[in-house]
């Protein structure tokens, strides 16, 4: 009987050496794929989930999302839809697929509402800045310049396909827009809080009931003070906040000593997707508004 061969673990710096051979201006699809799927999949998924709360803290966005009721009445489906459409759109953006259905679905959903360009651009900036700052703080290493450029190029292309205007030319431009927008526009709104509560309830539902108070405090500790204030959330207990930082620090040290991830990991590989137990047809994913709803001014 022939035993299956065991694959030798990859060196921790395997993907860094691969990236060093590539040009971020032309090879950004390959580099961003490595960053998203091999080097930092967990970090990007967690930070992107938390980035949702930032959009709720912009009153115009929070009130519009509350008005549609999708994130309140069908929170898990809307959460799953968002992940599926973003991942499938990303395959097209990165050239891994020639099927533009997901991008069309994304544009159809947004096109049903009168959403100003500045709001679309802010949401785009959260996909750039939030994960990069998370990785620099909690990732097993900091991003290289080539990785940062590739992430920016990826999301620039994503934004172009969505028809977003005035996209910043580099990471510094995205970070400046992100910080300025939050300073000037973050404020409490009842709609934003309602959508935030629904999303928080979904995240907590993934854990046993006994753990939910602790998880709630942990999640609150990962939202910056100005974001908590805008959503009118109380500060977490200092002991919980400190414990979260210790846990993430231990994870960073552990991952730094592990072999590099050989197989690419997609967010859809780790999500429950309970609203699509038998799979999905991307053409039918998401909402199908029948009328235009103006954003709240």
Main β-sheet, in a few words? 2 strands, parallel
Q: Low-confidence parts, pLDDT < 50 over ≥5 residues?
A: 293-297
SSE ordering = HHHHHHHEHHHHHHHHE
Helix content: 55-70%
Order of the strands making up the biggest sheet? 1-2
**Beta-strand segment tally:** 2
Average residue-wise pLDDT? 92
Our measurement of the CA-to-CA distance between the termini, rounded to an integer number of angstroms, reads: 71 Å
Assign an overall shape: globular
- SS-derived structural category: mainly alpha
Q: What is the radius of gyration computed over CA atoms, rounded to a whole number of angstroms?
A: 20 Å
**Percent range for β-strand residues:** under 5%
Please report the number of helical segments. 15
Main attributes of the structure:
mainly alpha, 1% strand, disordered C terminus, 64% helix, 297 residues
Give an overview of the whole structure:
- The protein is mainly alpha-helical and 297 residues long.
- The chain has a domain at 21-207.
- It contains 15 helices and two strands.
- Strands 1-2 form a two-stranded parallel ribbon.
- α2 (28-39) packs across α9 (145-161), α8 (117-138) runs antiparallel to α9 and α8 (117-138) crosses α10.
What would a concise description of this structure say?
This protein is mainly alpha-helical and 297 residues long. It is 64% helix and 1% strand.
SSE blueprint and pairings:
Elements: H1 14-20, H2 28-39, H3 41-56, H4 59-68, H5 70-73, H6 75-93, H7 101-111, E1 113-114, H8 117-138, H9 145-161, H10 171-185, H11 190-205, H12 212-221, H13 225-231, H14 238-256, H15 267-270, E2 293-294
Parallel strand pairs: 1-2
Helix pairs in contact: 2-9, 3-8, 3-11, 4-11, 6-7, 8-9, 8-10, 12-14
């Amino acid at each position: 009987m022939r035993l299956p061969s065991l694959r030798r673990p990859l060196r921790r710096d395997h993907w860094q050496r691969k990236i060093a051979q590539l040009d971020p201006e032309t090879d950004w699809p390959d580099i961003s794929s490595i960053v998203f799927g091999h080097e930092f999949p967990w970090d990007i998924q967690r930070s992107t989930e938390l980035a949702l709360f930032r959009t709720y803290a912009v009153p115009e966005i929070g009130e519009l999302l509350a008005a549609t009721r999708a994130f309140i009445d069908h929170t898990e489906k809307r959460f799953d839809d968002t992940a599926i459409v973003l991942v499938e759109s990303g395959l097209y953006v990165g050239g891994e697929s020639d099927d533009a259905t997901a991008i069309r679905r994304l544009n159809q959903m947004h096109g049903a509402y009168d959403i100003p360009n500045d709001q679309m651009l802010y949401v785009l900036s959260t996909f750039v800045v939030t994960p990069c700052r998370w990785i620099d703080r909690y990732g097993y290493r900091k991003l290289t310049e080539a990785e940062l450029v590739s992430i920016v190029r990826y999301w620039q292309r994503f934004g172009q396909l969505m028809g977003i205007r005035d996209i910043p030319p580099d990471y510094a431009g995205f970070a400046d827009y992100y910080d300025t927008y939050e300073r000037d526009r973050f404020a409490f709104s009842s709609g934003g809080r309602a959508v935030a509560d629904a999303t928080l309830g979904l995240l907590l539902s993934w854990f046993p009931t006994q753990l939910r108070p602790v998880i709630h405090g942990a999640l609150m500790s990962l939202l910056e003070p100005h974001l908590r204030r805008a959503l009118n959330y109380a500060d977490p207990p200092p002991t919980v906040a400190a414990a979260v930082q210790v846990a993430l620090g231990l994870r960073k040290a552990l991952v730094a000593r592990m072999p590099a991830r050989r197989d690419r990991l997609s967010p859809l590989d780790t999500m429950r997707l309970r609203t699509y137990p038998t799979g999905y047809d991307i053409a039918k994913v998401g909402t199908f508004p029948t009328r235009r709803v103006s954003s709240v001014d």
